[in-house]
Every structure is written in structure tokens, then in C-alpha cells.
Write a structure and sequence with these properties.
The complex is a heterodimer of chains A (269) and B (309). Chain A has 269 residues and is mostly helical. Chain A folds into two domains: 49 residues, no CATH class; 209 residues, MetI-like fold (Orthogonal Bundle), CATH 1.10.3720.10. Chain A has 14 helices and no strands. In chain B, helix 4 packs across helix 14, helix 5 runs antiparallel to helix 11 and helix 6 crosses helix 9. The longest helix of chain B is centred in the first third of the chain and has 32 residues. Classes of the chains: A mainly alpha (269), B mainly alpha (309). At the A-B interface, helix 1, helix 4, helix 5, helix 6 and helix 9 of A face helix 3, helix 5, helix 6, helix 7 and helix 8 of B.
Chain lengths: 269, 309
């Protein structure tokens, strides 16, 4: 019994340390600039204000960046849900030459660091005339290897008999995919959609390379550039940090089951 | 896998053309999206980057990439003479070998604590809390930490001041800047290892612990001779996966220190990013190729060691 109590104490202490940066920053973002820098500091704002947020949207074009992030993330979710499940279906249930070789290449792509291919990818995008466009930001990620892997694992568990029965009834492979396989994939699609949204929302390197004017910046890009330009405007900066972090935190709080499932399924197979 | 796909009884039916390798064009339509994106945006650039690294290509050559001059291994030789690149390589090495054990130790400690008979609801609550830093934007987090650690305006030094300690200028001090980034990364990443290790812990059969109890093993002995060996595959996965990620760290110094002070936090990836920004594409390609080689070698080595023991 005593041991269990000390475990709880340790876990709680750990939790406080872990969430301290979030809590402090979030509360500070509602303080006026003067109070943010005040010593000794206040935990709760003595004077609540939303001026950091309004200032952010006026001065940093945060509204546009927010919208850009949303457009990119939603486009990638839709593309990945469709394409990863198509490719995953082929790897799980269809027979074709070089199937195992191709699946090996999926694994290879998963290992390639973004920074390694960044320069030639950019030259390619420039050649295609896609610099500073949404298409340029999105294209390399429309069918993520992690998504293919997840969908293949999930679809492999769907009984073959279901698919064979439809084939005997004369259904075409595309009909089988859309009317039998895809509806059965709903739980996996929910996880894949969430993970894709999160990855896209947080992605920095590639959008920073492709987006070259303020009207194309995504949130992390806008925040990183603003932070380098205005290093000490903490009120605006931490409000920006909250705007970047909060949507994912909210999604996670409500849908954490799917997140954790996704991590466990990719981590242990 | 193979057993579900090769059912002779079903393959013989004439309506199942899909099953025959010679008649698989439908399957190819299904995998086409991957093939196209892989060839165009990943395999192509990977090879092009290798080729680029032997040329003097600059940003001004994008219009006509084939008109650049081949300079052989000159970029690679320059790389090894470049003071900043050497520093970046050293920083990356220090970062990986310190952050990796720290992250795994924290993840393991949290997983073991959560698996030690804590009630379900609080366990889920703690897991949620510990996991949050991992899923949030690294740019947002870096901005927040820079504020928390500001020498004058940040609460960390204000608290230290209140108990009579004169806190350092964390991010502009050569001695503390990299350690801060190491601690921040461990803080951000251990939740992932925790989730993976917790799942593995829950998969350990209870009988093993009971057998250890009968043999009179204490808590520490049970941990060493049952838990750790059973966790080996999960630990190996965490090690490989995290070290690949850590070897590419870049956003943290980009936002918090811009690689400073005096290059103390410049990572290999950040140096490549800066060379790209400066337009030296050939040189950046050479550095990227070296980094990629090191990462692949590191992953293979870890698998080798992991398998042998």
C-alpha cells in the first residue's frame, strides 16, 4: 500500500513537470506584455487580456497562416485516406509481380530523412513550376508510407471469404474495394486521418522550403519566421505558440484512443 | 500472410483472374499512386541528390541543372575541412548519445510506474499527460521554451532568483545551450517510448513473474531478469526509431538559438538547411549524403547488435 502511494506521488510530480511548460505558456498568453515580464511572476493573469491574440492576427497575418495550415492538412487527410487504403489493399489482398519488392520500397521511403532529399525535391518542384503553391507543399506526402503500412496490416485481417464471395458474384475489383473493403476500414481510417492531420499540421521543413511569400506560409513557418524577426515580443510569440499547439491538443484530448492505437500498431509490428 | 493469399482451391476458379500473377494489371492500378510518388518525389531526388553532390550546383543553376560543372569529390573534401560542419557533426553525435538513453530511461520509468498496479482511470490520465508533448508542434514548443528560459523575463530564472540562485543565460551560454535542447527533446519524446514500452510490458505473461517469485527473486531481480529481456524487441525498436529521428534534429536550434552561440547548437541538419538557404546546392547535397549514410549505417548496426544479444 505504501509503495503504491509513493508511485502516485512520483507520477503526479512527473506530470506537473511535463505539463508545466504548456500551462504556464497558455496562462501567460492572456497577460499583457508588462505582466509577462514582471518579476516576481504571476501564475494566473492579474489582468486577463486577449490583446496578444488580436495583435497576432493583425500583425502576423496569422489568420491566413491558420487557413493555409488547415487547407494543407485537410487535403493531405483526404488524399492519404483514399490512396493509402488503395495501395494497402493491393499489398494485402492482390497478387502481382514484385509485390514484396515494392513493399520493401515502402519501408525504404519511411527511412529516408526529409532533410536528405530536400534540395533535389525543391529543384524538382521548381522545375514543375510549383514553388509557393499548395500543390507543391502537398504532393510529396499524398501517399505516406506509414499510412500504407497501417492500412495493409488492417486490411490483411479482413477475411478473404468476404472478398472472394464478391468476386464470385462478378463484382469488379474497384467495386469490391469501395463497397466492401473501405467501409470495413473505418476504425483504421479514423486513426490514419488523425495521424495525417497531426503530421501535416506540425510539419515545418518542407512547407518552409516551398512557401516563399507570407500569403502561403503555414502556421509553423509563420511562427518560426516571426520568432527569428521579433525574438523578444513574447506576448505575440507565445500566443502564436498556443495557436499552433492548441488544435492538436484538443483533438488529442477528445480522440486519444485513436492516436494511441495508431502508435501501438506502428510501433510493435 | 502467404497462407491467406495462396489458397489452391480458390485459385483454380476461372472467375478469379486477379489471383494470377500474369493478369495483375488491376493490382498495378491500385499501387500506382505509391509507385509514382515514390519514383518522382523520393527515389529520384535521392539519386539526384547523390549526383548533385559531385557538382558545383548553386540555386542560380535551377533553370538549367544539367549545365553545372562536375567537381568530383571536392564537396566532400571541403566538408571535412569545414570548421562549422565538423562542429555540427560533433554536436549531432553528442545530442544523439545523450538524448537517446535519457529518453528511453524516462519512457521506461514511466511505463513501469504505470504498469505497477495503478488503477485504470488515473493510469490513462497520466499516460495522456506524458504523451502530450510528443504530438504538439515542435516550433510552438521551441517558442514556448525560449520564453520560459529567457534570462530576465522567463519564469525559470525568476524562480531560481527567488531562492537565491543566479540562473544562467540558458540559450546564449555555450555551456548550457545544447544541454537545454537535449533536456527539452527528452521531455518531448519520452511519451512515445512510454506508449511502446507500456504495450510491451502488458504483453509479458504473468507466469514469468510468478516463476521468479517462487525462485525467491526480489523486485530488482525480477526487473532485471524478466522485464528487461522480455522488453528487448520494444527497446530495440525505440532505440532505432529514436536515433534516426534524433540524428536529424533541426527545428529546436533553428527557433531557439539559430544554431548559436558560436555554433554550439548547430546540428548537421541545420547546417544543411543553412547551406540550402545560402544556395550551395551541391555542397548541401554532399552533406546530406554523408548524413544519410551515417543514419543508415547506425540503424543497421543497432539491428545487428540487437539481434546478436
Amino acid at each position: 500500500m505504501k509503495r503504491r502511494t509513493s508511485t502516485y506521488v512520483l507520477l503526479t510530480a512527473g506530470l506537473l513537470v511535463v505539463i508545466f511548460p504548456f500551462v504556464w505558456t497558455m496562462l501567460a498568453s492572456f497577460k499583457p506584455e508588462g505582466e509577462i515580464r514582471q518579476n516576481p511572476p504571476t501564475l494566473l493573469p492579474a489582468e486577463w487580456t486577449t490583446s496578444n491574440y488580436t495583435g497576432l492576427f493583425e500583425r502576423m497575418n496569422m489568420g491566413t497562416a491558420f487557413l493555409n495550415s488547415a487547407i494543407v492538412a485537410i487535403a493531405l487527410v483526404v488524399a492519404n485516406l483514399l490512396l493509402c487504403s488503395m495501395v494497402g489493399y493491393a499489398f494485402a489482398k492482390l497478387r502481382f509481380r514484385f509485390r514484396n519488392t515494392l513493399f520493401g520500397l515502402v519501408m525504404v521511403q519511411m527511412m529516408v530523412p526529409a532533410i536528405v532529399v530536400m534540395v533535389p525535391q525543391f529543384v524538382l518542384i521548381a522545375k514543375l513550376g510549383l514553388v509557393n503553391t499548395f500543390l507543391g507543399i502537398v504532393l510529396p506526402f499524398v501517399v505516406a508510407p506509414l499510412g500504407i503500412f497501417m492500412m495493409r496490416q488492417f486490411i490483411a485481417d479482413i477475411p478473404d471469404e468476404l472478398i472472394q464471395a464478391a468476386r464470385v458474384d462478378g463484382a469488379r475489383e474497384f467495386r469490391i474495394f469501395f463497397s466492401i473493403v473501405l467501409p470495413l476500414c473505418r476504425p483504421a481510417l479514423a486513426t490514419l486521418g488523425l495521424i495525417t492531420f497531426m503530421t501535416s499540421w506540425n510539419n515545418f521543413l518542407w512547407p518552409a522550403v516551398v512557401a516563399q511569400s507570407e500569403d502561403m506560409y503555414t502556421l509553423p513557418v509563420a511562427l518560426a519566421i516571426f520568432s527569428n524577426a521579433q525574438a523578444t515580443q513574447y506576448g505575440l510569440l507565445i500566443a502564436g505558440a498556443v495557436v499552433v499547439v492548441a488544435p492538436i491538443l484538443l483533438l488529442f484530448l477528445f480522440l486519444q484512443r485513436y492516436f494511441v492505437q495508431g502508435i501501438a500498431s506502428t510501433g510493435l509490428k | 500472410m502467404a497462407t491467406t493469399l495462396e489458397r489452391p482451391a480458390l485459385r483454380e476458379k476461372p472467375s478469379l483472374k486477379i489471383g494470377k500473377p500474369g493478369n495483375s494489371w488491376v493490382a498495378w492500378i491500385f499501387v500506382l499512386p505509391f509507385v509514382v510518388v515514390f519514383v518522382v518525389f523520393w527515389a529520384g531526388p535521392l539519386l539526384a541528390g547523390l549526383g548533385m553532390s559531385f557538382t558545383d550546383m548553386r540555386s542560380t543553376d535551377v533553370r538549367d541543372p544539367l549545365a553545372v560543372d562536375v567537381v568530383g569529390v571536392e564537396n566532400y573534401l571541403r566538408l571535412f575541412d569545414d570548421e562549422l560542419m565538423r562542429k555540427a557533426a560533433l554536436n549531432t553525435l553528442i545530442f544523439v548519445v545523450t538524448t537517446l538513453p535519457l529518453t528511453i530511461a524516462l519512457g521506461l520509468a514511466a511505463a513501469v510506474a504505470l504498469n505497477s498496479g495503478i488503477a485504470r482511470l488515473p493510469a490513462a490520465f497520466f499516460r495522456l499527460g506524458y504523451y502530450t508533448p510528443y504530438i504538439t508542434s515542435i516550433i510552438g514548443i521551441a517558442v514556448a521554451w525560449r520564453f520560459l528560459l529567457d534570462p530576465d523575463a522567463g519564469p525559470v530564472n525568476q524562480f531560481l532568483g527567488a531562492i537565491g540562485i543566479d540562473g544562467p543565460a540558458w540559450l546564449s551560454d555555450e555551456n548550457t545551450a545544447l544541454p537545454v535542447i537535449i533536456v527539452m527533446t527528452a521531455w518531448r519524446s519520452f511519451g512515445f517510448d512510454m506508449v511502446v514500452l507500456l504495450a510491451a510490458l502488458q504483453g509479458i505473461p504473468k507466469e514469468l513473474y510468478e516463476a521468479a517469485d517462487i525462485d525467491g527473486a526480489g523486485r530488482w531481480q525480477r526487473f532485471r531478469s524478466v522485464t528487461v529481456p522480455m522488453l528487448k524487441p520494444a527497446l530495440l525498436f525505440c532505440t532505432v526509431y529514436s536515433s534516426i529521428g534524433f540524428a536529424q534534429f533541426m527545428e529546436e536550434p533553428l527557433v531557439m538559438t539559430r544554431g548559436g552561440p558560436a555554433g554550439a547548437t548547430t546540428s548537421a541538419s541545420l547546417a544543411i538547411y543553412n547551406q540550402f538557404g545560402a544556395g550551395a546546392y551541391g555542397y548541401a547535397g554532399a552533406a546530406a549524403t554523408v548524413l544519410f549514410t551515417v543514419i543508415v549505417a547506425l540503424a543497421l548496426l543497432q539491428f545487428r547488435i540487437g539481434r546478436r544479444s
